[in-house]
Amino acid sequence: MKLLLLLLILFSAQLHSQTSSLKELEEKRQGIRQEIDILQDSLSTINGKIAEFPIKDLSGPIRAYALEGATLRKEPSKQGEKIIILEKQTSLQVIDIIGNFYLVCFSGECGYLHKKEIRRSLPPSYPTKRS
């Protein structure tokens, strides 16, 4: 009889621990689903930003050039603190798009340029620099 009671207690303890494990797994699944939803929203936002930049081939780095007097800023705002005023045709690496501003990097320096201060390619009238 004692053996039967001991087996019954062990079985109920095991059943209880499995129920707890199932609840924990279900909570984890819900958390992961929420994270997936957030990531999908982020991907949609990023795809929208990429679509704003007139580039068809995204297989390589996105290169662009600063127009004369382009002002690199710390924040994506006309009131953002100025980092440097770029020379015309400064080669840039486009990292991100935030509203009307591009996050760009060149020579180890990163900041924001307004979309009117940047071009995808050089106009024919610009002489090309040779190394």
Features:
single chain, 131 residues, alpha+beta, five-stranded antiparallel sheet, two-stranded antiparallel sheet, 1 helix, 39% helix
What do these coordinates show?
The chain has 131 residues and is α+β, with helices and mostly antiparallel strands. 39% of the residues lie in helices and 25% in strands. It contains one helix and seven strands, in the order H-E-E-E-E-E-E-E. It has one helix at 2-52, and strands spanning 63-66, 71-73, 82-85, 91-98, 101-106, 109-114, 118-119. Strands 6-5-4-1-7 form a five-stranded antiparallel sheet. A hairpin with a 2-residue loop joins strand 5 and strand 6 (109-114). The longest helix is centred in the N-terminal third of the chain and has 51 residues, at 2-52. The chain is rod-shaped. Residues 126-131 have low confidence and may be disordered.
